[in-house]
Write a structure and sequence with these properties.
The protein is α+β, with helices and mostly antiparallel strands. It has 2 helices and 5 strands, in the order βαββββα. It has a 5-stranded mixed beta sheet, covered by helices on one side. A hairpin with a 6-residue loop joins strand 3 and strand 4. It starts with 10 loop residues before the first strand and ends in a 14-residue tail after the last helix.
Amino acid sequence: MSSDSTPRQGILSLSIKEKSALYMAYMPFVTNGGLFIPTTRNYEMGQEVFILLSLMEETERLPIAGRIVWKTPPGSVYRAAGIGVQFSDQDGGMVRNKLENYLAGALESERPTHTM
């Protein structure tokens, strides 16, 4: 039996079409950046995942490799259930830079997000 790096639960698809939704999902406090993905599926901390992100009006989806660094379980009172995915550093920060360009000026906001 051969082992590969494909996550057991497949590829996650995420579509973010508004700046406010991106602000709520983005995790700037994570090394390399990260995204919160609403889900009720069970993932393990440290599990490697692959995201296909549809962002704003861009026609091509961004492929993002990462690993689980945050979990909000289903039934949490104050936050949506889901996972936080830390971006891999294999893209040299390209995804993080792209997301932060969309969020220019909003990252200093005190508004709550899905994670903090």
